[in-house]
Amino acid sequence: MSTNTSIEDSIDQAATAVGSAWPLHSFVTANPLAGLEDHPFHEAASEAERLFGSDGYPSPEVFRNAWDEGLIDADLLRAELAAHGYDESPETLLDQLAAADAETDAETDAERDDPQRPVDHLLTKWLAAFLDQGQTEWPMPNREQGFYQAFCTVARHDGEIPDSGTIAELPDDPIVAIREVLGDYHVGRWSTVFEYHLTSLPGWTGLIKQQAESGDDWQSTYPISLAGYLAARLVVADLVGAPIEPPADWETSEASTDEVPLAEHWLTAWERGYRRELVDAVADASQSLADGDETDDRPAAQLVFCIDTRSEIIRRHIESTGNYDTHGYAGFFGVPMQYHGYDTDVSVDACPPIVEAQHRITDRPTAGCDHEHAAHDRWHDAVDMGKGVLKALKYNAATAFSFVESAGAGYGAALAAKTLVPDRFAGAKDAADSAPQPHEFCEPSVDYNPDAIGDLREGLTLDEKVGYAETAFELMGWEEFGRLVVFTGHASETANNPFGSSLDCGACAGNPGGPSARVLAAICNDDAVLAELRARGHDIPDDTVFVAGEHNTTTDGITLYDSGVPESHADDLDQLRADLEAARAGAAAERADSLGADNAADVDRRAADWAETRPEWGLAGNAGFVIGPRELTADYDLDGRSFLHSYDWSTDPDGEALETIMAGPMIVTQWINTQYYFATVDTAAFGSGSKVTHNPVGNVGVYQGNGGDLMTGLPLQSVAAPDGKPYHQPLRLSTVIHAPVERVTEILTAHEEIAELLDNGWLSLTVVDPTQDHTAFEYAGDIEWTPLGETDPLAADPAPAVAADD
Questions:
Q1: I need a labelling partner for 563 at 20 to 30 A (CA). Which of 52, 319, 354, 771 fits?
Q2: pTM exceeds 0.85, yes or no
């Protein structure tokens, strides 16, 4: 193996300690410790403490509040503590946790002098300049050459770097530059050196890692690599006299990774209390379903929502308004696509990061909609021209002062309106913008175009269309169809919010889900697709029409994209719209209470208020994932805390549908859950601190203050209440599957990576088996299960673990 290859392999290995980070405009929820998921949870938390100085568990104060408020079941806690040799009272153990926490904080304060700080200061300004995605007026020169080459060209003029002129003499190849800096260090130490430097700025490293792996338009135009970043960093460290290799105490953790800490036992008991209620509800409903009579009533409409926890609230209220069935499905609706909207300059991957985009879908004007198309273009051309003129006046030194003098009064009035009556200001803007919206005169290019040029194929073949539609029906276990079937994506609506995309659809990589809904609806309305689906045994009535929609999670309004719906279904649509509005009012009132808002109308103000730091809660509170029929949870208020994926085990004899759900959506929900968990337990290390002191940089992230590392996680206002207490209960995900336990066992045996996540404690799994008297089986590790007793489903001394075929 060559030295160059050895260096590259060592860099890749060192980089696993840092999780990937996506630009804010396409915020992707991910486990910040994804590279440590092959470790047991407590070991990963200990390793993260060594690498990042982070906390891996809720603070003693958070546990104390949960204990005082009755969120932690006393019997379950005492049983968990006793099972691991703790005889003291919970209060005494809390005091011990608090004392240990205070001692750790004191040691951390004494070690705050970081010898890498000068290197971080110099590198962050060059990273910010290079990775900027359109925010700066004067971009960094020579970016098309790549980061390392651009740095070598420009940084030689940086007066803050000692002997900066020597940078011009660096080798053209960054690997060679790394080898030269490390020439005096043993090869066996190189990987440790790389880890030390990559974890010094984990936010920037995570973004570089993601950009290098993505190969997107920005990366293709302005390439950057971890090797190029490390070369520049090591050169700067050498020039400023900072240490190249870490100090001895950095490489070892004081905490023993063999011993599960006391905090994890508190966390486990807290999780078990939540899980017990969820499992009991599912098991009881499973029994009721088996005992109940099936009804043949055809639903007036079926609405398919994203599995997102926010969908649970609106689904409950829709179901209460009439004969409607709601279902849960991954919000990209199973179509792995790159989407280019009519009004956008760039394409986005509208699918989860664990799925690779395979199709390019573009919004194209529909034939016969020339009037709407022209009206839209005229309006937006005028708006764009006005923005261009305004920008030129504001930034031109010759006109800036006269512009402010003449336009200041109008700006002041608009500013006052935005601040004092934001909802009315937004309403006035919407009224003024009366131009047709793209979805009114465009349709997605779903038909395969063999002549299109690009990295991805444009559109889908007939077989692909049929496959995506059939997969959706089979994963949800559908055997009947209403007159209307509405695929409902979701998006948020906020003002002045750098983290706005974190509230959009996580399954669509932090983008709105409406385009994905429109694509699947277009596929399912295709006559050739319907004919093939019917030939394959799917009994789709002739009067079934598929419609797309989008749920605004901030206001709970639902927009229907219904321009192609025939007149025969006009009455159905009118009734659905009226019921959706009633559901919106109910859901908004429920969410207003959780936000501490005065009334339901306040949710609209929050969407329009440019000073609102907490427009909605997003997925805060998420703790459970139920995979099964909606009937299992329809009569149970999940309080917007559970992901819901529709699944019917009886229509999935070979388990392929369940395997897809466990290997896809279950992993994505675990990512979302761990991001909220870690952002709550340590907002400074894994979140982004308070929005009040955010400083957006380069359209890719935010600083706290005027520089430093990128803050890549969720802001404080997304996980904490105004009084500073966590709104999000930091619990690991509890997954409940309604299916034969043998089927789940087969899937876990075939997917070692899923079993590893469970064995290492990153999430839990309980199976309610409808074929074994609706018994609940808890995953006990090593592909074994513990049947839960009726008296206390999660007691400290449950029945012994058994293999699924025992």
A1: 319
A2: yes
